[in-house]
Every structure is written in structure tokens, then in C-alpha cells.
Write a structure and sequence with these properties.
Blueprint: H1 2-30, H2 107-113, E1 117-119, E2 124-130, E3 140-142, E4 147-153, E5 158-162, E6 167-168, E7 176-179, E8 184-186, E9 189-191, E10 206-210, E11 217-221, E12 225-228, E13 233-236, E14 249-251, E15 254-256, E16 260-263, H3 265-274, H4 288-291, E17 295-296, H5 316-319, H6 322-325, E18 332-333, E19 341-347, E20 356-361, E21 366-371, E22 376-378, E23 381-383
Parallel strand pairs: 6-7
Antiparallel strand pairs: 1-2, 2-4, 3-7, 4-5, 8-9, 10-11, 12-13, 14-15, 15-23, 16-22, 17-18, 19-20, 20-21
Length: 385
């Protein structure tokens, strides 16, 4: 069996060699060459045949050996020939999709095209713009050169305006302005009469007075008022309250009127609204929390005492108790007068008829409620803050 296999292998080898030699000779004949085999023997292996020079010069090709490393180039597609017809970017021939060769402009060139100045140290494009005269009010002048800087935005292809705040002020820089001599900055404009319109109208109880140079003004309290620097406000010019001072008088943040007697609750509201006392007209009926600030000698019902009745807690069920609000016997008023019931403006919420109001009995220092048709005393109040 082994001998038979060996014979088959030898026979196959001889057939292969013969076919290769035939292919080679066919090629040479196709190229116009003449091949001569000096040995006509059928078993010639052509190991020593020499092909004529043809177009390949004097190369010697042994076509009998499939492992032949002769110098004649073969036609396999795997060879690393210098000229290929594919699309490989490494080919020596230029690709059809090659760049046009036109270079993109640099940032500096784009900057120049937009009339900017390229700052190499900052890698930025900048340009100086004049401040818009239309944004400056009449009778105003720039405090600086009236210029601002723009920076080119390469992403948006437009100028970004930096240092560009148009505003009134002495600051030197971009687009700051002040009023011309003789004019005053007021309400977004330069005015020649600093008190027209009245710049003091936003401060209660003041009037505008023109300064010496006619370009400044002062806000002064009107008659019967004085400036309180602690609250930056004009307040009634009255004495502080005590038991020997005639009302109106001031007690802390309140100004109190003199006492009026015997009126129902509706009349009390109207009385304070229309009151003109001491030259002051902004009176109102005090709330229960405000009225409690006049109680003395009764810690439970004084302001912030244990009685919970207040503007924030007017509920009879939740905030009033007899022990804390109605058992005092020594209370009185800061104004030094023994008084009976006095009205407050605070409504008694549990009353379905909405006719009951909270009040203070100053003869004892108690806090209770009265129906609004009762007639009680009244003190009006001006709240300063």
C-alpha cells in the first residue's frame, strides 16, 4: 500500500512539472519568443533550459521549479509593484478627491478682513468702536473718550461687544457720561431745573430746594416735620409722650392724638380718617396690638405680655383667656389719664354678625370686646414705621 501511494505522488509531481513547463512555453510564445528544447526526450525535466532574452532582457527563468526565485517578476496581484490601479492613498498617482490646494484663512487674516487688529500675545482679534451718541441723553458729555472695545467671535462670525456699558457716572471708561454744567441727572435725563419734576416726592413730607449753583437740590422736611436720621424719614415735630405733655405726642414709633370721647365704632373710624390735629392729617384708628403699647402697670396685657390677643392672633377661642387678658386691676395708660374702654380697629372673628371689636379698658388694663354700637373713647395714631 505504501508503495502504491509513493508511485501516485511521483506521478502527480511529474504531471505538475510538465504542466508548468507547458504554461511557461505558452506565455513565451504569446510574447513572440521562440523556445527550443534541445532534448526531445519525453521525461526531460527542463531543469537546465534557457529562455531567450525577449522583452525581459537576459533574465534566466527556470520554469520547472515552483519555488523558483528567479529575477523575472511574476504577475501576482500581491506583488508590491510601484504602480497600482486601486484607490490606496499611498499610491504614487494622485487621488481624484485630493484637496484643491487652497489654504483656509488664518484667524489673523479673518481679523484683518473684518477691519480688526490681531493681538498676537492674546490670540484675539479686537476693534475699537465709538459709543453710540443716540444712547447718550441730551445735555450729557462722555467722561472718557467715548470708545469701547469689540472682540471678534470666530464661532458666530460677529463682534462681541465688551466693555460696553452705557451709563451715567464719573467712572472713566467706555460710554460713561455726566450732565453738562448747569444740568442735573434725574430720572434718566439731564434736567436744567433740579426740582422739576420734584425729585423729593418719593420721600414723604419733604420739599425740593434748589442748591446755590442751580445744578443741585436738597430734600427738606415740610413745615411741622423734622428729619429722623434713625429711620431716614420726616416725622411730626412733636414732644415725646408723658403724663404732663399735651397731645399730639410721640411714643417710640407712634404719634398719638388727644383723646376723643363717646362714639360708636363706625364713627371712630371716620373721626381718625378726617382728623387734622397739630397740622397732621394722616391719622388712623389703632389696631389692638398698637393700642396695647399704651398699657402700663399690667404685665399680662402690656405689649408682648402673656395675653395672646394681637393683630396676628385675634381669635377669642384660640388667643383670649380670662387669666391673662381680663384679671388685671392696676393697669393704666402711658398718657396718664384714667380712661374706660377705648376702640381698636381689630375685628372679633368668631362673631357671626361681625359686629364685635376688640378694645382696652384703661381703667383696669384689661383687654375685651365690645359690640360696635357701644360708645367708647378714641385715640388716633400715626405710625412712623
Amino acid at each position: 500500500m505504501k508503495k502504491i501511494c509513493l508511485i501516485c505522488i511521483v506521478f502527480s509531481l511529474l504531471v505538475f512539472v510538465g504542466c508548468s513547463d507547458g504554461i511557461k512555453k505558452a506565455k513565451d510564445l504569446g510574447n513572440g519568443e521562440t523556445v527550443t528544447d534541445e532534448d526531445a526526450d519525453a521525461d526531460d525535466s527542463d531543469l537546465s533550459d534557457t529562455a531567450d532574452s525577449g522583452e525581459n532582457g537576459s533574465d534566466t527563468t527556470d520554469s520547472g521549479d515552483p519555488t523558483d526565485s528567479g529575477s523575472t517578476p511574476d504577475s501576482e496581484t500581491s506583488d508590491s509593484d510601484t504602480t497600482e490601479t486601486g484607490n490606496d492613498d499611498a499610491d504614487s498617482q494622485p487621488d481624484e478627491d485630493a484637496d484643491s490646494g487652497v489654504a483656509e484663512p488664518t484667524k489673523a487674516e479673518i481679523c484683518s478682513q473684518n477691519q480688526g487688529e490681531w493681538i498676537e500675545e492674546q490670540n484675539k482679534c479686537k476693534k475699537i468702536f465709538p459709543c453710540d451718541e443716540q444712547s447718550k441723553p441730551q445735555h450729557a458729555v462722555w467722561t472718557g473718550e467715548g470708545l469701547y472695545t469689540g472682540e471678534w467671535n470666530y464661532d458666530n462670525n460677529e463682534w462681541d461687544y465688551i466693555e460696553h456699558t452705557v451709563e451715567y457716572g464719573e467712572n472713566q471708561g467706555s460710554c460713561h457720561f455726566i450732565c453738562e454744567p448747569g444740568y442735573l441727572w434725574y430720572n434718566d435725563s439731564c434736567v436744567d431745573d433740579p426740582c422739576d419734576p420734584d425729585p423729593c416726592s418719593e420721600i414723604a413730607k419733604t420739599s425740593c430746594t434748589v442748591g446755590e449753583d442751580a445744578s443741585t437740590y436738597e430734600c427738606r422736611c415740610i413745615e411741622k416735620y423734622k428729619w429722623d436720621s434713625d429711620i431716614s424719614k420726616c416725622v411730626p415735630d412733636v414732644h415725646n409722650c408723658s403724663d404732663d405733655v399735651t397731645a399730639p405726642c410721640r411714643d417710640g414709633k407712634y404719634v398719638w392724638s388727644s383723646k376723643a370721647k363717646d362714639m360708636d365704632w363706625d364713627t371712630a373710624i371716620l373721626h381718625c380718617k378726617e382728623l387734622d390735629e397739630g397740622g397732621f392729617t394722616d391719622w388712623e384708628l389703632p389696631s389692638i396690638s398698637t393700642l396695647r403699647t399704651l398699657i402700663v402697670n399690667c404685665p399680662g396685657t402690656e405689649a408682648n405680655g402673656s395675653c395672646k390677643i394681637s393683630d396676628e392672633c385675634p381669635s377669642y377661642n384660640e388667643c383670649w383667656s380670662r387669666d391673662n387678658c381680663y384679671t388685671c386691676t392696676n393697669g393704666t395708660s402711658k398718657l396718664g389719664q384714667q380712661e374706660n374702654w377705648m376702640w381698636s380697629s381689630t375685628i372679633f372673628p368668631e362673631d357671626e354678625s361681625k359686629l364685635k371689636r376688640w378694645g382696652v379698658d384703661f381703667s383696669l388694663g384689661r383687654i375685651g370686646n365690645q359690640t360696635d354700637d357701644n360708645e367708647n373713647s378714641v385715640r388716633c395714631v400715626i405710625k412712623l414705621y
